[in-house]
């Protein structure tokens, strides 16, 4: 079967996994406050609601651990197809669920598939893409997530007008179609050249590189240079023997692992994901009700989608570090402003706002509009900084022998934090109200400090050259990235002048 060679066509298939993740993010947002949902599932309290929402993240965490064990053995493409099958089973269970237990099992299985997608998809794209556009291509994972969240929110909103169980059955059943499309589309996606090389399938490695980066010409100097780099990296990897858990915490790798895990941890603790999952509650705090509340909440998803575009267009020019630092500072400002507005102009409602026991703090008037504006600005900042970079950065910074396992571990941190936040957020809104936003603001301060001192810049470097960046041992904040005099360019020039042959 002839494989695709256009990286954008390949990416459009792989990032359907991100679309499905986005579906899960918003598949409850417009449903949880509807009468059919409350009637069918017995008006779940804040703890139960947190459990229903968190089941996705719990399943995703386990899915990442499965990817850790299987990605290097089965390969990236086959594992993604297995994730599709599991996701489809979960979506069927959700749509057919008769009680909370069945719903949680279905959402857990959907999450399991998403865990595979989010650890394996970015890894495959990073290994297939030219370094000059790697940030753009992997950022499309986040853009797909935002589109999924936006589309599912409006599907859920539209289904809410049915006033019956179709309110939640339709959104959960719709997820099956894109999962099937991804499953069959993956047959046309090439295997990772670096995974092929790790299995000593060198002819296939060269052919994939030629198809992707040389218009089918295996004699292209760029293709031959990349082939040499991969051979040398695999040779070094093979000399080290079998990958063990202990290697992830060795001196040469501990910084990489901590950076890979931390970028996902701080993305979750930024506060934006908690707001997206429970945006209806936030806008209830802001004094909105009924359809106005739901439509206003949907704007959050529109902003999330639109503001990912700047990252896609400029991340490979601006770089990872400046975007992360800017994002931390601005998100901190919006969260502290939200907390201040709620504290100064809001008041406590003992019995809950609009009959919702979870929401016990409300603000009205101009301060209400300011709170809504701050949540919009928070999402806008997050969407063009930490959100896309959390998918780009981890696959870049690990060597081939560790990439599959290490990216899975890093992504699992995203989901275990997501699991905790989904449980934490409703009770936090109920118990400490506006102080919840201060906690998230402080997390952004710490995230910015770690990014400044420990996250090296990786833009426009080959995956093999990034190994040398971490091996140099120089502090991230003192390291200057050289773009012109790098190893790949030197290899290409030497091949063009006949100094090196493959």
Write the layout of secondary structure elements.
Blueprint: H1 7-14, H2 16-26, H3 35-41, H4 46-74, H5 76-96, H6 100-128, H7 134-159, H8 166-174, H9 176-185, H10 193-198, H11 202-213, H12 221-239, H13 251-269, H14 272-277, H15 279-285, H16 290-306, H17 309-318, H18 320-345, E1 347-348, E2 361-362, H19 366-383, H20 386-397, H21 400-431, H22 435-454, H23 463-471, H24 487-496
Antiparallel strand pairs: 1-2
Helix pairs in contact: 1-6, 1-7, 2-6, 2-7, 2-9, 4-5, 4-6, 4-21, 5-6, 5-8, 5-9, 6-7, 6-20, 6-21, 7-8, 7-16, 7-17, 7-20, 11-12, 12-24, 13-20, 13-21, 13-22, 15-16, 16-19, 18-19, 18-22, 20-21
What report would you give on this structure?
The chain is mainly α and 502 residues long. The chain has one domain (7-478): MFS general substrate transporter like domains (Growth Hormone, Chain: A). The chain has 24 helices and two strands. It has helices at residues 7-14, 16-26, 35-41, 46-74, 76-96, 100-128, 134-159, 166-174, 176-185, 193-198, 202-213, 221-239, 251-269, 272-277, 279-285, 290-306, 309-318, 320-345, 366-383, 386-397, 400-431, 435-454, 463-471, 487-496, and strands at 347-348, 361-362. Strands 1-2 form a two-stranded antiparallel ribbon. α4 (46-74) packs antiparallel against α5 (76-96), α5 runs antiparallel to α6 (100-128) and α13 runs antiparallel to α20. The radius of gyration is 23 Å and the shape is globular. The two termini are 28 Å apart.
List keywords for this structure.
502 residues; mainly alpha; Growth Hormone, Chain: A; two-stranded antiparallel ribbon; 74% helix; globular
């Amino acid at each position: 079967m002839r494989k695709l060679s256009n990286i954008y066509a390949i990416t459009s298939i792989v990032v359907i996994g991100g679309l499905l993740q986005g579906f899960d993010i918003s598949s409850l947002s417009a449903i949880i406050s509807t009468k059919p949902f409350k009637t069918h599932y017995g008006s779940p309290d804040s703890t139960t609601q947190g459990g229903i929402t968190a089941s996705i993240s719990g399943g995703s965490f386990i899915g990442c651990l499965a990817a850790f064990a299987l990605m290097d053995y089965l390969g990236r493409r086959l594992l993604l197809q297995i994730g599709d099958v599991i996701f489809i089973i979960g979506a069927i269970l959700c749509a057919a669920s008769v009680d909370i237990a069945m719903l949680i099992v279905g959402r857990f299985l959907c999450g399991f598939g998403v865990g595979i997608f989010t650890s394996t998809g970015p890894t495959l794209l990073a290994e297939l893409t030219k370094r000059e556009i790697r940030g753009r291509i992997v950022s499309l994972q986040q853009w797909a997530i935002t589109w999924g969240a936006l589309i599912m929110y409006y599907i859920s909103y539209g289904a809410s007008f049915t006033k019956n169980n179709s309110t939640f059955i339709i959104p959960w059943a719709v997820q099956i179609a894109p999962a099937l499309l991804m499953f069959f589309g993956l047959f046309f996606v090439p295997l990772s050249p670096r995974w092929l090389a790790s299995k000593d399938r060198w002819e296939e490695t060269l052919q994939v590189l030629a198809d992707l980066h040389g218009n089918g010409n295996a004699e292209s100097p760029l293709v031959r240079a990349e082939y040499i780099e991969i051979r040398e990296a695999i040779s070094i990897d093979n000399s080290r023997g079998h990958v063990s858990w202990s290697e992830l915490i060795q001196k040469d790798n501990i910084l990489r692992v901590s950076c890979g895990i931390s970028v996902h941890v701080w993305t979750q603790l930024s506060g934006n994901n908690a707001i997206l999952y429970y945006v209806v509650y936030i806008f209830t705090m802001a004094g909105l009700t009924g359809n106005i509340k739901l439509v206003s909440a949907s704007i959050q998803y529109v902003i999330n989608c639109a503001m990912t575009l700047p990252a896609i267009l400029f991340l490979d020019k601006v770089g990872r570090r400046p975007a992360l630092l800017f994002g931390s500072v601005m998100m901190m400002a919006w969260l502290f402003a939200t907390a201040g507005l709620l504290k100064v102009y809001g008041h406590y409602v003992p019995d809950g706002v609009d009959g919702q026991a979870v929401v016990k703090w409300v603000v009205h008037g101009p301060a209400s509009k300011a709170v809504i504006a701050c949540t919009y600005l928070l999402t806008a900042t997050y969407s063009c900084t930490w959100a896309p970079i959390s998918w780009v950065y981890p696959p870049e910074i690990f060597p081939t022998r560790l990439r599959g396992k290490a990216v899975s571990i890093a992504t699992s941190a995203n989901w275990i934090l997501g699991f905790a936040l989904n449980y934490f957020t409703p009770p936090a809104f109920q118990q400490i109200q506006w102080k919840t936003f201060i906690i998230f603001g402080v997390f952004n301060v710490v995230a910015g400090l770690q990014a400044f001192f420990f996250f090296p810049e990786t833009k426009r470097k080959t995956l093999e050259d990034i190994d040398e960046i971490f091996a140099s041992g120089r502090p991230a904040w003192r390291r200057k990235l050289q773009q012109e005099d790098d190893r790949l360019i030197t290899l290409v020039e030497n091949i063009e002048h006949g100094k090196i042959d493959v």
